[in-house]
Amino acid sequence: MEGLTSTTIRCVGGIVFDAYGRLLLIRRRNDPGSGQWSLPGGRVEPGETDETAVVRELAEETGLDVIPGTLVGSVRRGRYEIFDYACEVGGGILTAGDDASDARWSDAADLARLEAAGALVDRLYVTLRDWNALPRA
């Protein structure tokens, strides 16, 4: 964890698309970003690898079993350093839970509407665009 200070909290997120190219989003129940839509994810617990944390967090927040893949990118949000991984769905049923008050699949038009309405967490749309990770039309 080179470059991270002791006050930095390591987090992970999952970038997951369904067979239709729609992006998995959750509505955050708690701060930071309470009430806004975001990628599912959360804190890496002591002793966990990023991959283990992604699997656990996505199961808790979405009810889906995922298979983590490559690191897509990382962002710093205050004291949170978030590492976002491409993931594939291996099973489960989409159901909001834990820190998520809602969960859904979002196509390009829906994501653009959420961005225009200010309903996405800060800079999510721009970051996904920069990573070439926006949903298909």
Outline of this structure?
The chain has three helices and seven strands; from the N terminus they run ββββαβββαα. It has 137 residues and is α+β, with helices and mostly antiparallel strands. The strands form two sheets. The protein has a four-stranded mixed beta sheet, with helices on one face. A three-stranded antiparallel beta sheet has the order 3-2-7, covered by helices on one side.
Structure in words:
The protein has helices spanning 50-62, 108-116, 124-130; strands at 9-16, 23-28, 37-38, 41-43, 64-77, 80-92, 100-106. By secondary structure, it is an alpha+beta fold. The longest helix is centred in the middle third of the chain and has 13 residues, at 50-62. The termini are far apart. The radius of gyration is 14 Å and the shape is globular. The strands form 2 sheets. It has a 4-stranded mixed beta sheet with strand order 4-1-6-5, with helices on one face. The protein has a 3-stranded antiparallel beta sheet with strand order 3-2-7, covered by helices on one side. The mean pLDDT is 93. Strand 2 and strand 3 (37-38) form a beta hairpin.
How would a crystallographer describe the biggest sheet? 4 strands, mixed
Rounded mean pLDDT is 93
Taken as a percent bin, the fraction of beta residues is 35-45%
Strand order of the largest sheet: 4-1-6-5
Distance between the termini: 37 Å
User: What is the total tally of β strands?
Assistant: 7
Order of helices and strands: EEEEHEEEHH
User: Which geometry do the CA atoms define?
Assistant: globular
- What's the number of helices? 3
Name the poorly predicted regions.
Answer: none
Radius of gyration: 14 Å
Helix content: 10-25%
Structural class: alpha+beta
Oligomer: single chain
